[in-house]
Amino acid sequence: MFCRKLYAELYNSAVAQICAAFIALFFFSITDAHSQQFQNQSEADTAYEDSRSMIAKGDYQGAITKLKQFITDPAKYPKPVSDYIVLLLWTGSTDDAIKTYENLPDGFPKTAFLLRNVAKGYYDKRRPQNAVSLYKAALADTPNDTEALKGLALSHIELGDYESGSEQLKNLITKLQNDSDIRILYSTTLFKAGRHYEAIRSFRAAAELSPANAENIYRTRDALVQRLADNERMELLKKLAPSDSNNPSADYIVMLAATGQYSKAISEFHMSEIRKNNAPLDVLNWVAWSYFKIDAKDRAKQIFSQVLSSHPENMQATIGISYCLSSENNSNKALEVLSPLQSKYPYDIDVLYAKAYAFERSGEFIKAVNEYDRILSIDTQNITAKRLRLYALSDIGATTPALQETIKTFPDDKLLIESITGNAAVDRLRWAENEKAISLLNELRKNPGNRRAQLDYLAALFESRETSEAIELYKYLERQNIDLPVWIIEYAAGGYLDQEQPDRAMYHYSKALKLEPSSYKARLGMFQTLSIMRRWDEAEAHLSSLEKEISAPIVNEKPNFGKLSLAYERGWFLISQDRLSEAEEHFMDLYSKAPGNTEARNGLAHVFYYRGWPRKAYEEFSIISNLEPEELGYKTGLIISKNGLDQKTEARSEAQEMLSKNPKSRILKNLVRDLKVQDLDELTASLSVTSEEGGFGDTQYYLSYSHAFTPYTRAYAFLYHERSRDSNQTNNFKRAGLGIYHIFSRYLSATQQLSLNYDDSKDIGSFTSLSFTPDDHWTFSASFDSYTSDVPFRARVTGISSKKYDFGISYRVSELSDYSLSLTRYDFSDSNKRDMLNLGHSRQIFQQNDWKMRLFFNFYTSRNSLDNAEYFNPDSDWKFSLTHMTEHTLRKIYRQSWIHRLYITSGLYKQNGYSGKLDKAIRYEHDISFSDTQSLVVGASYGQNHYDASPTNSYTFYINYRGRL
To answer: Residue 307: pLDDT above 50?
Structure first.
């Protein structure tokens, strides 16, 4: 990486030379061919000359366009084609250039200039073997081409052939005596070739030739030395040892310090001639560091300050001063000294080391570990960073990964092993750094004897929501007949719950409680599982038991967070039972006691939404999201309310974006799924069969298919067939139609439908409806149907059709009660006009666990204009009825439910000219959801109505299917 970066710098420095060479090429190139693109040689020459003018002006793209027409016959136009390839390389179209080059015909004359540029393209594309070949070919023609020499050297280095690379660079140095970068590269390559002694001497020579760049050269050298194994350092030290013990070299003193022989380094320095003269800065810095390491901090600080007095920009001395400050327990000052370096060199390893040391000295070991992690992300093989990181991990208690990694990496470092032994927790998990924990533990767990690492790894998987993998590993450990600890069993129970397997979760929470009956986590998990399974009484017992053990949620105006979390659980428990008014009162009470607590407001906002008040919910969710913009749960609530208020596109976009950032979130997966289901195509099919005494009967078939073009617009097509009969005749009503439903805003929606008889294409009808919802309670609707299917079947049997006008007002207080009023007019085809008034009210009277009861009050009155109609058509009538509904949930878990309902109706019916009569009815139905996309309603009813005071019994069976596709 270093070589490639350096080559880029070297290459850029030669841009001016290359441009000059190319312009020179303009004056000496000759074209002598033609092709089918050109009418004559003169036209070809003109095109080529134009391209040369463009190149001289720097218009490379224009020149490329001109030259492209020559490539159809490269053998006849070698120079324009060569220019074209080189220009592609210069403008970054390397792939196109290489492809064009590789397709050149045999015998194409390839100049050294072309070969060198294409070689550079191969090098940039990580094809160094090809680059070597072309660089050699270029140098065969132009042996003194320094750019080709550089490229050849770097290509050898890229191939790992450091010997050949160093030889090329050595030749280059003879041509470029004062090029500091080439000397650094040469020294580095020698080092990588294993010629450490020569490399060290070469670094020193490079620094002496370029004093302004000396610190950079020495720091490059020191970084390479740090990577050497201990035995390699000692071998290098032996080679550097002086023959005259009274005159050690600068490199020898530096290597003594680098190998940890600090006292000897100081002693050799004081005996040397170097001290008497102007000692090189790297020697002074290493001697100061040696003083620091032998705890002579004042002397170290003095020498570092001496260096900075003459060279204030010297990084090593600045870093050394920061170490001294940290050791004096002045870490804040040390970090302040390092701050400019951190800003200027954010990836400098020595600066990161110094920061880590400052954090360690101030007891901020987590921050220290983070700095070591940054170092290792830059240099994954940095031994020193690994060792220091393990110490820091030990200091914060992360002993499991630290100890196992130490044994593996530093088996002979007894001090390090002893310092890490002791703690049992993997602290990365405690910090919620799950991905890092997994990375640390993955290798350790492969040792079958390291049970602790296996369990820690399993916990890390559960914490990072890698639930499927975690469950499989847990099952494997179970099969090994291992006595798993309670905390692992609790993790498994939570994982099964996340996988929507409450039965398995229940088993494991029970198992955990047998081992540790007082476990708060297991008891709370058991309560949550029982709630999901709708085992309300058992869930209530668990929650009440926990509540009794913890004091009040607010103590001395301060939150008791343990009790407060149970208070939230209580609120959500009420919501899960549809006891929404109680849940509202509960969360309102919590909110009044702790108005700054967003969790209470979040519960309250959800209650508002579930009670059918999306606008009110949206206001609360908006406030919460502004207070806690990063909290995932609050954002999902805001998205749900936006969707409920018909900000559907925005809701879907935000949900998808959040899921992309949190792909493991079960909440977000479910939210995105719910929104997707709403936009699926929908198939609806229904059948209703009614039989009434007196020979009357009616059968209705309905089939529709709808498609959502956008979240706001859904188009549908339908077929409807109604067959009405009496003892004398039968009439069929056959309709097919197309319609569109559109939401204009949170206030206004409309439906427009056209239909006709599908057997004879007659009787075209139009249905239009508008619905206006100004707030969370009121709804106003109006509709007109020019050929309605809503005709009483006793009229339908005689062939009557009708127009229908309808206007309605409804007021919904909450899920507990609502009111409605509607005015309807039928214009029958026999000139009869029927006007109807309907008043309705419903009220929930009971809600407990899986049982609900509701009363429906209804009053209607009608007037008819036609006398002596062929069907039942009283001048006027009215009816008051009361219906009692009992609903019982047999099963409701996740996206499946099975609910059955019983409706019992009794009413007083009064027809003009007749005394009042008591009507009655009973209906029973099953409402089954197989999933979030498939549902079925099946029911039957019996009713007794009065026609001209004569009681008539009727029986109906119906089935309705709805599927999302």
So the answer is: yes
Task: Show the tokens assigned to 419.
Answer: 């310092």
- Integer Cα distance of 386 and 401 in angstroms: 12
CB distance 742 to 750 below 8 Å? yes
Whether pLDDT at 66 is above 90? no
Average pLDDT score, the chain? 84
Alpha carbon distances (Å) from 171 to 121, 152, 163, 182, 939:
23, 11, 13, 11, 96
Relative to beta strand 917-929, strand 851-864 is unpaired
Bridge partners, residue 768, by sequence: 752, 784
What was the pLDDT predicted at 423?
35
Token pair listed for 869: 């109609």
**Given a cut of 50, is residue 19 above it in pLDDT?**
no
Contacts of 28 (CB under 8 A, 6+ apart): none
Question: Cα 229 vs. chain centroid, distance in angstroms?
Answer: 42
**pLDDT per residue over 232-266, tens digit each?**
888 888 888 887 666 788 888 888 888 888 888 88
CB 372 within 8 A of CB 396: no
DSSP states along 443-466: HHTTSTT-HHHHHHHHHHHHHTT-
Contact criterion met (CB below 8 Å) for 221 and 350? no
> Bridge-partner residues for 691, per DSSP?
697, 955
pLDDT average, residue stretch 873-893: 94
Residue 568 contacts residue 562 (beta carbons within 8 Å): no
Q: Is the pLDDT of residue 7 over 50?
A: no
d(CA 301, CA 304) in angstroms, rounded, equals 5
pLDDT of 24 higher than 70: no
Which tokens hold the place of 895? 């996206």
Q: How far apart are CA 742 and CA 616, in angstroms?
A: 24
* H helix or E strand, kind and range, residue 579: none
Residue type, 5: K
Nearest-5° Cα angle at 791, 788 to 796: 115
Q: What angle do CA 167, 171, 174 make, to 5 degrees?
A: 145
pLDDT value of residue 752: 97
- Residue 840 buriedness (CB in 10 A; 0-12 / 13-18 / 19+): middle
User: How many angstroms separate the CA atoms of 837 and 807, rounded?
Assistant: 10
CA separation (Å) from 726 to 531, 697, 871? Answer: 53, 6, 11
Helix (H) or strand (E) holding 857: strand 851-864
Per-position b or e across 111-134, b if 16+ CB within 10 A of its CB = bbbbbbbbbbbbbbeebbebbbbb
pLDDT band with cut points at 50, 70 and 90 for residue 407: low
Q: State whether residue 617 is helix, strand or coil.
A: helix
Name the DSSP class of 680: S
Other CB atoms closer than 10 Å to residue 422's CB: what's the count? 10
**Which tokens is 14 given?**
């030669």
The confidence score (pLDDT) of residue 560 equals 56
Answer positive or negative: Cα dihedral of 352, 358, 364, 365. Answer: positive
What residues are paired with 957 via a beta bridge? 689, 940
d(CA 528, CA 522): 10
Distances (CA, A) of 356 to 48, 128, 319, 366, 409: 62, 39, 12, 9, 21
Q: Is the pLDDT of residue 468 over 50?
A: yes
Question: Sign of the C-alpha dihedral, residues 876, 880, 886, 887?
Answer: positive
Query: Average pLDDT for residues 293-312, to the nearest whole number?
Result: 88
Rounded Cα distance between 629 and 631, Å, is: 6
User: Is pLDDT larger for residue 428 or for residue 897?
Assistant: 897
Span 77-84, mean pLDDT?
84
Rg (CA), the chain: 43
Q: Contact, 177 vs 196, CB < 8 A?
A: no
Q: What is the 3-state secondary structure (H, E, C) of 403-443?
A: HHHHHHHCCCCHHHHHHHCCCCCCHHHHCCCHHHHHHHHHH
